[in-house]
Amino acid sequence: MTIRRVLMISFHTCPLASQEGKETGGMNVYVLELAKQLSRQGIEVDVFTRSQDEEQPHIVQVDEHFRVVHTVAGPEAPVPKKQLIEYLPEFVSNVQSFINDHALSYDVMHCHYYLSGLAGLNIVQASGAKMPMLMTFHTLALMKNLVARDELEKEEKARIDAEFHLVQCADAVIATSKSDKDYLRYLYGAGIDKVHAVPPGVDLDLFRPIDQNVARAKLGIDTDGHLILFCGRIEPLKGIDALLYAMKIMVERQPSLDVCLWIIGGDVSQPPAQWSKELQKLERLRHTLNLSSLVHFAGQQLQEVLPYYYSAADVVVMPSHYESFGMAAAEAMACGAPIITTNVAGISSLIEEEQDLLLTSVNNPLLLATQMETLLTDPGKRQQVSSGLREKVAGLAWTNIADQIVTIYEEAKHALDRK
Predict the structure, then answer these.
(1) What's the angle, vertex CA 315, arms to CA 311 and CA 320, rounded to 5?
(2) How far, in Å, CA of 72 to CA of 77, rounded?
(3) pLDDT tens across 137-163, in order?
(4) Is the dihedral of CA 226, 299, 141, 46 positive or negative?
(5) 207 lies in a domain?
(6) 239 & 149 share domain
(7) Average pLDDT, integer, range 320-325
(8) Across residues 389-394, what is the average pLDDT?
(9) N- to C-terminal Cα distance for the chain?
(10) Would you say residue 206 lies in a domain?
(11) How far, in Å, CA of 181 to CA of 197, rounded?
(12) Which domain holds residue 22?
């Protein structure tokens, strides 16, 4: 069963967001890189996303076989995620009009995040096309609620109900880790044969080891001391506050240690009073812990620059309370950088048990401080644990990941055709 054309839905966020100057996360990178790799195989890919900028062209031809269609649904401006659901009917109608106007047909639909899944169900029903719908949730509401610290952080019941419904309606579900596959099976009741665990890929040509001195010179980092790096979205479940606590503990234990922490992510282009709520909370914590001179908020960075940050760092820390996979950690490993990640992250399955310094527990700043201190003060140990990290992610080249996903597309298409 040959797959010739794929319809992707990324309703709430655009895969080109980084190029458009917007904050991005792992899902943006995932959709963009997967679509690029499919197009390199000669598969036509259309990614439909909600238009957030009236000045942005509605159709962006990324390469010969891949285009992004910015579809009007509500105001052509950023809208809080929890308000977006009211614009789904308009989005579905306009996507369907585009398909009809251009006489398009697709072999498979791949929806990213639950809002896209709800749109996808309606598109399939409206078109009457015999087209399998696949889901990648990227994060799960039940797991996010498990680690939420207050009611404001919790996902609404409507999202949870939608995820349960989509698990049952989708022809196949692609989980980004074995742990999320198990959560989908045991918490959401997904059939054992419906969910496929396929990790995100890594661009191994982009993410490669760079000499640390070269990387620091490129970034204008003039310190000869140790550099700890965090890279990711600035939100509570990322556990950045625990990293700041660990930083404080470590410098109290080792007052002569020359070390700084750089936090990559978030919009810091405005004065702190206009920063996001979470960034402001971290800024207050930085002052409370008397770390102002040691912690630097570097803001969001382009993908093309991230390899220099990873290579400049002595250790990259991902202290998340929940992480369906952990693409930043995979990118850092591809650059040969030592990482410390919580044992709840999907990527932790790639780390061998004897490399216990690379795995930490959630909300345990004492343990994290000890692990960072050991890696920073013992170059031999740092070299030992970082040796071979790039090899561990060698199988995550996007060519391999796309091949696995195409196989799932083909199986879903074949199964639906037999019905």
Answers:
(1) 115
(2) 10
(3) 999 999 999 998 888 789 999 999 999
(4) negative
(5) no
(6) no
(7) 92
(8) 84
(9) 15
(10) no
(11) 6
(12) 5-201+397-418
